[in-house]
Each structure stands twice: as C-alpha cells, then as structure tokens.
Amino acid sequence: MASGDGIQIPSRLPLLLTHEGVLLPGSTVRFSVDSPRNMQLVSQRLLKGTSLKSTIIGVIPNTRDPEQDTDDLPSLHKIGTAGIAVQVVGSNWPKPHYTLLITGLCRFSVTSLLKERPFVLAEVKQFNIKTKVEQLDKLEQYMTPASEGVTAEDGELGKLSHKFYQAAVQLLGMLDMSLPVVAKFRRLLDSLPRETLPDVVASMIRTSNKEKLQVLDALSLEERFKKALPMLTRQIEGLKLLQKTRKKSPDNEKTVLSVRKGGVFPGQQFNLDEEDEDEDGDDTAALERKLYRAKMPEAALKVCLKELKRLKKMPQSMPEFALTRNYLDLMVELPWSKSTKGKRS
C-alpha cells in the first residue's frame, strides 16, 4: 500500500459519486449515501471487505449518481480524491441509507471505466508521487537562505508557501485558542508539510464547493496556493469585521462570555437580563431567533438558515464548527436595518 515516495493507491478503485461535497486530500468529510450504485458500493465493497485495501475508494465530486441503476452515468468530474472509509453507519429511516466518514489521501484521474454496475469501478492514475516529493524538496529549500541555482520562478513558490503559512497563523490567532480543535490545529500547523496546507486549510474554512473544486483541480502546488490564499484572506477579513462589530456598550456593564461545549468564545456578549438567554444550554436555538430578528434581506437569511442547519449536524470537534459559528455571529451583528446619511461623490 505504501512506498518510500508516499501513499500508493490501487490502480483500480470503486467510485463514490457525489454532488454534495468535495473531499480534499488530508481532510475528513461525512457523506450521505442513498442512490443505487453508491449503496451497492457500500454493501458489496466496504461492508464485505476484509483488508485495508478494500476500504480505499475514489470520491468523484460534482457528479450526481442517477436515481435509477438502469440510467446511464453522467460525465464524471475530471479529478477525484482517493480516500479511506474510516466509518460506515447504516439506517433505514426515513429510507435506507448509509453515512460514510472518509479521509482523503491523494488526487487521481479516471483513465477508463471498467464497469458501471452494480457500482462504478475504474482504472485510475494517481497524481503524482514523484512530482509531489520534488515540490516538497523545493519548499524545504526555501525555509533556508537562498542557494545558488534558485530561479525567480522557483522563488515564487517559496514566497507563496511562506505567505500562506503566515496567513494561516494569523487566522488561528483570531480564533479562540481555548477550543481544543483550534489549539490542536495550531500545533499541527508547524508539523504539517507545507505542501498539504492549501488542501487542509481550504477544507476547514468556510467556502463554497465551487471554490473547493478549484483547489482540487489545481494539480501544481503553486496553483493550489494561489487558489486557496484568497479564501484564507477573505476569512481573515470577515473575522476582522466581526471583531469591529463586537464593541462593549459603555451603558451596559452586565456582560458575560458565551460558553459552549467546545469552549469559551471571547467577545460574544450577552445582557444578563435578555429574555432570550438560553436556559437549557441550546444556544443554536437562541442563534436562530437572533437570525430572524436581525432584519437581514431574505436571500441572506436563507443562506444563514442553511448554514445553521449544517452547524446543528456538525460535530463541535470539527475545525469548521468554530468558523461557521463565527460567520453566523457576524451576520447577526451586522447593522442590516441601519443606514447612514451621506452624499455620493
């Protein structure tokens, strides 16, 4: 399974087709499975397998598995992620389905389809062990003073890596370090290979599947840094705005920190006399009431309620939990119903 150059995946992989999420190497994503081919993949491959190899599958994003197994396959997204199914949970309510927890290993492309039923099996090409190691060697060179033979083009990759790392450190510094998951990632940041940072950070921060697909499709390390850096910068700017809106009122000294199961989020202030202070500890219900009272546009409210629904299902141990919660807090605190008088130039 493994070689000295890194992870070596099988040349043939069963494919999980999904249109709901994007699995990036180094990330762990939960997928709900209820379509015919995907269900057959789980029941015939994952549940009957007896080796580690049998738990490795290919995840093809941006591709919907047909509702009927007699229907033809749609065009497959050109890049997929090989992953290990670390957990499989089945249920018959409200209809038969499985929930898979998959950890991404590496990128691949489909070279040919071997069969379409009962599940999709394909010949795949892995990207690209030797090239990845060579790129990592380049990055290690840039952690030391410049040596002879380093070109301007090579130097650009080193600068991007350093800039991305500094931005990731800045983002973590703006989050609550009392959260175990935030503290853990801060420790991992210095131990993770720099080449993994674009994938890992893009999977953690709040961004669209379309943007995650752009990172997945970036096969060169330099392009991957360039795709992921704007997402990281946008997250930092959003947290800066959140911090500016959280100013303590001089007329109200009765404030407390918001304590959640995951830890304490500094800056979140509540009036002790507020009628919506949540006595049963379910602060997602209180957050939902605040969203409705924020008087935001209907389109913005729709997006926030969708994110709140995701938040309720998300384990608090996931890094994205704190980021999603901070985003919703920001949306609540923005002055949607207030305006200023000014003249347009």
From TrEMBL:
Keyword terms = Hydrolase, Protease
Q: Where is the Lon N-terminal domain?
A: 13-236
Q: Which InterPro entries match?
A: Lon_Prtase, Lon_prtase_N, Lon_prtase_N_sf, PUA-like_sf
Gene Ontology MF terms: ATP binding; ATP-dependent peptidase activity; serine-type endopeptidase activity
Q: From what superkingdom does this record's organism come?
A: Eukaryota
One Gene Ontology term from the biological process aspect of the record: protein catabolic process
Q: SUPFAM superfamilies, alphabetically?
A: PUA domain-like (SSF88697)
Q: Name one Pfam family in it.
A: LON_substr_bdg
**Protein name, UniProt field:** Lon protease homolog 2, peroxisomal isoform X1
Which species expresses this protein natively? Notothenia coriiceps
